[in-house]
Design goal:
- With about 525 residues, the chain is mostly beta strands.
- About 0% of the residues lie in helices and about 50% in strands.
- The chain is built from no helices and 42 strands.
- The protein has a 4-stranded antiparallel sheet, with no helix packed on it. The protein has a 4-stranded antiparallel sheet with strand order 16-17-18-19, with no helix packed on it. A 4-stranded antiparallel sheet has the order 20-21-22-23, with no helix packed on it.
- A hairpin with a 7-residue loop joins β30 and β31.
- It is elongated.
- The N terminus is likely disordered.
């Protein structure tokens, strides 16, 4: 006959509680486990609570834990593992004061990073001295990245920029661009530690081009990219061709159909970021031919000048930006040389600040011959315009394609027909009185005499040198050279199909252009270096 008999042992905490069930004269005995004994389920424990494979019990203070410690309302035995939920500690153990870990070693600070630890995420770094040289080469600079990606980095990079319509995928843990449409880079400018990049982008063949703005920091490739929507006309193509930045604001210019396109914004607030607010304005004076801006300059007060062409006339737009990059209706002027005939033409391609106002450089067609031409404003904003055709030694004619201001000097560049009937790149220096102080005429070795060679952009380098980007022949083959105003030497660059712009960028030079249907940017050292020393 089956019998059932229960009995309970009594005593202090830790004594077993045994249960026996007799069936058919047989008895099975199962002991419940004490506090801090190992367990698999709650039913294994006297306290009916198994946590982290250890018998425990609920608590409010350590006094009820039988020599253990009350942590997170559960009794835990000293010396066992726990978690203090602090990513800045390791090897956490139960101690009389609670769960205690050993601080992690995130490494020492360095000249480019302040090493920090965030309890939520662990070791990290705050960037220091961004853009400053940190090694023996001017191309090793302090970057803006985190603990692994920042620090002292070699900043020679050659990249096809990520376009605003491109998709970004992750490959081997790094973002890569999946090309969509076409991207063309036409202008670069530096604002703090940010390289501003502009041009045009097309989502698909046959669709309108949209003006495009990108940004990158000193040691990374393009970090941000967007296409600006047209303000009104949806089928008109837009293109930005020049940009200038100064004291917390910048202005980009280009064309929108037959109108001049001006885009202003407040400064980039951090390296590699893009402003959320752009102010777009389209200008089309009544009766004017199609406007084609080519150059822009902004001074420290926010005054700006935009130059270009309008049919057979030169274009000059003047205005002044407020601190928020807004501005009233600008002054628009179209003009030619003082003695121009109806058949003569004039165009301006670059502009720079001058003590009297603005100094612009371009070309004028006078009696069928291309001539170097300078136009300059007098008496401040809205003042009169004067201009002069100038003769340069060793040339019979030509035209300027750009100008920059140095230390009390101005450097203009373009193309020239020499007295020996060759077409060559030209770079010339001017003083404040607009007197020509030096002239360089140069072309790559082996260039056919009939092929046009045009200097299209320039930027200052170390030691009084200038780096000049040029286009050679009908295909505008890229060629880059350096000059100290007396001699010339070629500069190696990457595989761009066309170059458009050059700008001094930190301790180096950024060269921009196109690589087939992609935008191209390369950085070289301010002394012409193209590689960093090996570690």
């Amino acid at each position: 006959m089956a019998t059932l008999k229960n009995w309970i042992g009594t005593g202090a905490i830790g004594l077993s509680v045994a249960v026996a069930v007799g069936v058919g004269g047989c008895a099975a005995k199962r002991e419940l486990r004490r506090l801090f004994a190992s367990c698999a389920t709650d039913s294994d424990c006297e306290s009916s609570l198994c946590y982290d494979s250890v018998c425990t019990q609920s608590c409010t203070t350590s006094a009820s834990c039988g020599g253990g410690v009350c942590i997170e309302k559960k009794c835990k035995q000293t010396g066992t593992s726990c978690s203090d939920f602090n990513a800045c500690t390791t090897g956490d153990k139960v101690a009389s004061t609670g769960c205690v870990g050993t601080p992690v070693d995130c490494g020492p600070d360095n000249g480019c990073q302040q090493i920090v630890c965030d309890p939520k995420v662990g070791c990290g770094a705050k960037a220091l001295n961004v853009g400053e040289q940190c090694g023996t080469s001017p191309l090793t600079l302090c970057g803006t990245g985190g603990l692994e990606t920042g620090g002292c980095k070699c900043s020679v990079w050659q990249a096809s920029a990520i376009g605003p319509y491109d998709q970004v995928a992750i490959q081997d843990g790094k973002p890569v661009s999946v090309a969509v449409g076409a991207v063309s880079l036409r202008a670069l400018a530096v604002s703090g530690a940010t390289l501003i990049q502009l041009g045009k982008a097309q989502k698909a063949p046959g669709q309108p081009w949209r003006s495009w703005v990108g940004a990158s920091n000193l040691t990374a490739q393009l970090e941000g990219s967007l296409a600006l929507p047209p303000a009104d006309v949806t089928e008109t193509s837009d293109e930005l061709v020049a940009v200038a930045a100064q004291t917390g604001r910048w202005l980009a210019v280009g064309a929108s159909g037959n109108q001049a396109l001006l885009v202003s914004a407040t400064d980039f607030v951090a390296a590699g970021t893009i402003p959320s607010l752009f102010r777009q304005r389209r200008i089309a004076p009544t009766g004017a031919d199609a406007l084609q801006p080519k150059g822009v300059a902004v001074d420290a007060s926010g005054s700006f000048a935009v130059v270009g062409t309008a049919g057979k006339s030169a274009l000059l737009v003047r205005g002044k930006m407020a601190a928020d990059a807004e501005y009233a209706d600008p002054q628009v002027q179209l003009f030619k040389t003082a003695t121009a005939s109806p058949l003569d033409t004039a165009q301006l391609a670059g502009v720079a600040a001058h003590p009297k106002g603005w100094l612009a450089a371009g070309s004028a067609l006078v009696a069928g011959k291309a001539k170097f031409w300078l136009a300059y404003t007098e008496n401040g904003f809205g003042g009169t315009i004067a201009s002069s055709v100038i003769e340069l030694a060793g040339t019979t004619g030509g035209g300027f394609t750009g100008i920059l201001r140095g230390d009390q000097t101005w450097v203009a560049w373009g193309t020239a027909t020499t007295t020996s009937a060759k077409t060559q790149c030209l770079v010339a220096g001017l003083d404040a009185a607009l007197t020509v102080t030096w002239v360089i005429l140069v072309a790559p070795a082996g260039k056919p005499d009939a092929d046009v060679a045009t200097a299209i952009a320039a930027a200052p380098m170390a030691g009084g040198e200038f780096l000049v980007a040029a286009a050679i022949g009908s295909n505008a083959t890229p060629w880059v050279f350096r000059t100290d105003t007396k001699s010339v030497k070629a500069q190696a660059v990457g595989s761009a199909t066309r170059l458009w712009t050059v700008v001094t960028y930190g301790k180096g030079i950024a060269i921009g252009g196109d690589q087939a249907e992609r935008a191209f940017v390369q950085r070289v050292g301010i002394g012409g270096e193209t590689g960093c020393p090996k570690p």
